[in-house]
From TrEMBL:
Residues 1-13, 23-32 have a biased composition (Basic residues). It comes from the Eukaryota. Signal peptide: none annotated. InterPro entries: HMGXB3_CxC4. This is Hypp4666 protein. Residues 1-47 are annotated as: Disordered. Residues 33-44 have a biased composition (Basic and acidic residues). It comes from Branchiostoma lanceolatum (Common lancelet).
Length: 890
């Protein structure tokens, strides 16, 4: 049968208080003009604030435990089919109720008999502490020959705290759980369980009592863990015999088993009584109320009564419109209100100090669901029906979290000093403040999709500025395991090869051509300054001879021979140096010339072809628009043609024209192969804050494909033959924290999301975001390791990124001595519709610097809390940036 939730009996109240200040003749708030000229009624309209408070402490752990069980409604009496009465209660850790742990208390099946014929039955419990006594009693003879009273006293003295508490209920029903007459009548109408070993206790969160050969246990769900698991066992809590029995019972009753739901289902909220979403910023009426609180014009109402919402209870029953005060629906007789400077338990009602009381409301159905007092109309956050925290204190911590390096523990220490120095009353304990903040922050009315979307770029930004930051949390707290790697397609995608991407595929020839361009491999310095070098006669002959093995290098050989005949066989003339040096690099040719490969009229390749065949006088003033497009799309090539045009008497030599034609043919080779969407598995469902990534407006559009390059990768830390040609990013790391997160911003400074770095930052992280979440690649990608990211993309998805410009941000460009100047942002102007010069490449770095403010407080959170708090911080920063843009979503 269904368990009964126990009603708290009336208990005497402790009455004591202390005055607000030293000056007793001072004008008190109660002497000020009344806010309501009609006075106040017994329902607790707001009165003038009086700071007299009460303070009490409970030294008896049994009394504290009993009070907590009554307040939280976590004690249930279950009558089994055979008439046996069993108690299901939430466990206790010495200070507060344990999260998700319950014990079963009942009387033994047999009694002990004295010599005189007296009988006594002991309580037994399912907890570990009581197991020793239970085994001893089972082995003890039921006929007691020793002094019977001494035997009973000794055994009851060994009771665990659960048995002691239940026995006190049984011995003194006046202070134990009681029931109204109406509740008893309803109980008689409830049907018994139909011969099953599983007994239903509570609906949400689910609680069920299982009975079997292994004893009794409690199975169910909690607010944090929505899957079915054992609330009594310590090990294998999702697969023990109690859970198995409960699953079988659910199937027999036709009830769906509770499961973890992914997708857009929010993470279960921390357990607080307040339930309404909290607007930010506050509306005008609540702001006015806060000002009245601050000025002392009003006080907290005496009776805190929940309103009547338009919605129904979880079982679709209407809420009872009766007066909770008249009905006696009181949650707690002792309520404490905490503000930034004090705490109080009394309020001034009609010039008289009265205790603050919290009431609840029930529904009209048989389910008897309870609607707790929320407190928003009074700017109070209801933590547990006995601790109410002022909105102002929680909002203050929110603002300190956003703007200062202030962890919650530091804020609590400052609050403790504030109360001790300037205020009075009790201090809210840290664990309660932490729970209040977790619940309060989850209730903030934040539209995640709107806050993580730029009003200018909207759904799909054309410019992405991305980078990683060392905002990590404990590695051992990573609980979510992504299944993307196990959902790879069976079809393998082959990207482009290195040999077809570089113009000069011979490593030795690249060294000689680099020296011919005036760059010595052994004399490179940090930065772009290089000391001149030259080829010997033998090296020149070897260079020209090696070019004959590849047809597309014939034009380069012809050019070198002409320059040699003109006396430049050791080092190239100045107009040719930079361009030949670019051709000698190990990077992709399409990185030097990052042009749009879409076939259309006025395309960059068409302009170049017409210019080098003298069909277009590119440097004539009438063709300034064509020259401007060439400079914006291919600045290195445009500068080379202009320098040669001036040096060669306002003409472009035929060997240069042939070389440029070969280059333009080869620059498109990596993009020759394309594939359709059938190579991708379907995208996996994402948990909002339970996974690795948070991109509200960029959901996964395709699954993880299988790439041939991944199978060909050699062991890490492979030593390159030419270290000077490598652009590597150096990483530090924390021994116990995760590497950090990887964020993506648009050019206006709005963050579109982030992902947790499971390993040190690499090009794989931005690649997975771009290929997995974008239907079309962004037009410009700014990244401090863009050269390596471009090569990573060409190895796997060249066609997807063929019209994307990869740029290294300005701060890190000086360190990229080995990559092409085609990755330099300052080389470009108007690239298509995007003005590259106007892009702030440090947007991500600046935002990541702000993330360091919350680094200390996020470092030791669980994964879901880490994801939520990082998203919360970025959401508020995005809202600030959207307001700066001056564009409203409305």
């Amino acid at each position: 049968m269904e368990g009964r939730k126990l009603v708290k009996p009336k208990t005497p109240r402790a009455k004591f208080s202390f005055m607000r200040g030293r000056d007793h003749n001072r004008r008190t708030p109660s002497q000020k003009r009344s806010r309501d000229s009609t006075g106040s009624d017994a329902r607790g309209k707001r009165q003038r604030l009086n700071f007299e408070t009460t303070s009490t402490s409970v030294s008896d752990p049994m009394a504290t435990y009993k009070m907590s069980l009554r307040t939280e409604g976590e004690i249930f009496e279950v009558r089994l089919q055979d008439g046996v009465k069993v108690w299901v209660i939430r466990d206790w850790n010495g200070n507060r109720l344990k999260e998700g742990k319950y014990v079963v208390v009942e009387k033994m099946g047999t009694s002990f008999t004295s010599v005189a014929g007296s009988t006594h039955t002991f309580w037994i419990c399912s907890c570990r502490e009581a197991s020793g006594q239970q085994h001893r009693l089972l082995e003890t003879s039921k006929k007691v020959t020793e002094d019977f009273d001494e035997f009973i006293c000794r055994e009851e003295g060994d009771y665990c705290i659960h048995c002691r508490m239940i026995s006190s209920f049984e011995e003194d029903p006046d202070v134990g759980p009681g029931h109204d007459d109406d509740e008893v009548e309803e109980e008689d109408e409830i049907e018994e369980n139909s011969g099953t070993d599983v007994h239903f206790v509570r609906a949400d969160p689910l609680l069920a009592l299982t009975s079997g050969d292994g004893g009794r246990a409690v199975v169910g769900t909690t607010r944090r863990q929505r899957h079915l698991h054992c609330l009594t066992c310590d090990y294998a809590v999702r697969s023990c015999r109690h859970v198995t029995a409960c699953r079988e019972w659910l199937r027999s009753e036709g009830i769906d088993e509770p499961i973890d739901v992914g997708g857009e289902t929010p993470t279960p909220l921390p357990s607080a009584k307040s339930w309404q979403t909290i607007p930010y910023p506050l509306p005008d009426d609540l702001r006015e109320l806060q000002q009245e609180y601050d000025s002392g014009l009003v006080a907290v109402p005496e009776n805190l009564v929940p309103g009547i919402p338009d919605s129904h209870c979880p079982n679709n029953c209407a809420w009872d419109t009766s007066d909770p005060i008249e009905k006696g629906w009181s949650c707690n007789e002792t309520v404490t209100v905490y503000t930034e400077q004090c705490s109080f338990k009394h309020t001034n009602a009609d010039g008289e100090l009265k205790d603050i009381k919290v009431f609840y409301r029930i529904c009209t159905g048989d389910c008897r669901c309870m609607l707790p007092y929320d407190g928003q109309e009074d700017l109070l956050f209801n933590l547990n029906n006995k601790d109410l925290i002022a909105y102002s204190m929680l909002f203050r911590y929110l603002h300190l979290m956003l703007e200062a390096r202030n962890p919650l523990a530091a804020f609590h220490r400052a609050y403790q000093r504030q109360v001790g120095a300037l205020g009075q009353g009790d201090v809210l304990p840290l664990h309660k403040m932490r729970l209040a903040w977790d619940s309060f922050s989850h209730l903030l009315d934040i539209d995640w999709r709107t806050s993580f979307k730029c009003p200018v770029c909207e759904q799909h930004p054309d410019v992405i500025i991305c980078d990683g930051t060392s905002l990590g949390f404990r590695k051992d707290l990573i609980t979510y395991e992504s299944s993307r790697e196990t959902q790879q397609s069976s079809l393998e995608i082959k990207g482009s090869d290195h040999k077809e991407r570089v113009f000069l595929p011979i490593p030795g020839s690249r060294v000689f051509l680099s020296q011919f361009a005036g760059v010595s491999q052994s004399q490179k310095k940090k930065g772009k300054a290089r000391r001149p070098s030259a080829l010997s006669a033998q090296q020149y002959r070897e260079l020209v001879s090696s070019l004959s093995d590849f047809p597309h290098l014939a034009s380069l050989a012809t050019l070198l021979k002409r320059l040699s005949r003109n006396g430049s066989h050791r080092i190239a003339p100045d107009p040719y140096k930079k361009f030949l040096g670019e051709l000698a690099k190990n990077g992709p040719l399409c990185g030097m010339l990052q042009i749009d490969h879409s076939p259309r009229e006025g395309h960059t390749k068409e302009i170049v072809h017409r210019a080098v065949t003298n069909a277009l006088a590119i440097f004539d003033s009438v063709n300034a628009a064509h020259l401007q497009k060439l400079r914006s799309d291919a600045p290195i090539l445009a500068d080379f043609l202009f320098e040669v045009y001036k040096a060669e008497g306002n003409r472009i030599p035929e060997d240069v024209s042939a070389l440029v034609k070969d280059i333009m043919d080869r620059v498109s080779l990596p993009f020759k192969d394309k594939h359709d969407g059938s190579v991708y598995p379907p995208p996996e469902e994402e948990d909002t804050f339970g996974g690795y990534s948070f991109f509200p407006n960029l959901p996964l559009v395709r699954g993880q494909a299988k790439y041939a390059k991944d199978a060909q990768r050699r062991p890490r830390l492979r030593k390159c033959r030419d270290p000077s040609q490598r652009c590597n990013k150096m990483y530090g790391g924390h021994p116990s924290l995760s590497p950090g997160i990887f964020t993506a911003f648009c050019q206006h400074g709005v963050c579109y999301g982030f992902t947790i770095l499971k390993s040190h930052e690499s090009p794989r992280h931005p690649f997975e975001i771009l290929i997995g979440r974008f239907n079309r690649a962004p037009r410009v990608i700014v990244y401090d390791n863009a050269c390596r990211l471009h090569q990573y993309c060409l190895n796997r998805e060249p066609a997807f990124f063929m019209n994307t410009l990869f740029c290294v941000d300005r701060l890190h460009w000086i360190n990229h001595t080995g990559c092409s100047d085609g990755y330099c942002m300052d080389s470009y102007g108007q690239h298509g519709t995007i003005d590259v010069q106007q892009i702030n490449s440090q947007i991500n770095e600046q935002a990541n610097a702000g993330l360091k403010r919350i680094k200390a407080q996020l470092a030791y959170m669980t994964q879901s809390k880490f994801m939520f708090n990082a998203a919360l911080f970025l959401a508020f920063k995005n809202i600030d940036k959207q307001q700066q843009l001056g564009i409203s979503w409305e």
